[in-house]
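Narrative summary of target 7.
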Amino acid sequence: MTTGKKVLTYGIIIAVLVIGSLAYYHYFFVLGEGVKSGELNYVVKKGYLFKTYEGKLIQSGIQSKQIGTLQSNEFEFSIADQKLAEQLMSNSGKVYQLHYKEYNSSLPWRGFSVFVVDSVVSSQNAPQL
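Modeled conformation, tokenized:
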């Protein structure tokens, strides 16, 4: 093998490794994990090519800068598992604590959100007013 071919081969190998590492970091590296609590607003299955489960959790309101108003904190997320999504779908309106993982970017088959819920920590009925 000539010197030029060796340099080209090593250059291609290094480029593939760098691109692979960047792709892993951008799409698969877990940036953060946590638990969010609130009332489950909805869970839907949607998408054009990849059907994914998406949901919204309404967290407790906090006082906003304007007097006499509350700010609604919404947590929009994707759901990793079909069984988990069906469990959440059948119990909309309950108060949940959901464990999630945060990624740098979303993938079409993983969902629209960078927040992916992977388990339910606890659930209880919503308080009646």
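The beta strands are 30-46, 52-63, 70-79, 95-103, 115-124.
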